[in-house]
Specification:
single chain; about 325 residues; Rossmann fold; seven-stranded mixed beta sheet; 11 strands; binds 6-O-phosphono-beta-D-fructofuranose
Length: about 325
Amino acid sequence: MKRVAVLTSGGDAPGMNAAIRAVVRTGVSLGLEMLGVRHGFTGLIAGDFIPLGPRSVGGIIQRGGTVLGTSRCPAFLTDAGQQTAVEQLRDRDVSGLIVIGGNGSQAGAHALASRGVAVAGVASTIDNDLPGSDVTIGATTALDIALEAIDRLRVTASAHGRVFLVELMGRRCGYLALIAGITGGAEAIVIPEIPQDPEKIATTVREAYARGKSHAIVVIAEGAERNADALSRYFTEHAERLGFELRVTKLGHVQRGGSPCAFDRLTATLLGAAAVEQLQAGRHGILLGMVDGRVTPSALADVVGREKPLDARLIQLARALTE
Ligand code: F6P
């Protein structure tokens, strides 16, 4: 292995820069020539490569987003797009590729591996929905941002005696809402994995007020069967009977923009370094993730297209704590 390229793909996640830094510096220390691909698979198809050295990744470990840029790339889902990507790598004599990203990105990595490219993936998405890693880069920072928002909302909810509905990202996975709901002390948590009857939420909130609470927070995942808009519509339509309305706050992309916390920086550094070491050792077609606190490679073939179930104990805890 002589020349290795690295790209970030899909939704950016805090810690991606720390992973790029670790990839580049580890690669150089192993005697490799390092290239960056700008804007994910879009840049790979277009041949948008830049040389990277230890100094070009200085001062980025604390920055959110990704200095390489990222994209969602429909063209990469096509046969022609993937073939062009393989040719771009071959033309530049790139013998290994590191893909930092979540589910869709690792599916892309797997497609390239099936076409003979030596690929190593690094598990990175705020959604934490990728099998092969107990926790993905960016999820913990996104949770910290959500918690700060929930704490602030509770202040104003309390001043007015209001009920706030806070919608968190996560695509079809309820991880962010579940953990933010538990650690933010929410009165109710609504996630795809725990469907909630609006009448039950109303009862829970009324009971909380009857116990003397001056506010209520309901945390909902964007992927919930009845999402924030639908739930707030229901409460508005039945406001007279239910006794209150819901004020809605959607955190949206705010959750992605933070400076990575210590945990995400460390995880990104460990996984980024391991990805290069694995390629150098001739092991590829793998995803690097954290399993039981250890850097662990999994076959991309075993990861792609699968869902990661939420921890049943945490679901049970959420039910107990919000009842
Ligand atoms: O996968 C990360 C994520 O932030 C999801 O939580 C969210 O549903 C999606 O990306 C939003 O994608 P985009 O930034 O392309 O709108």
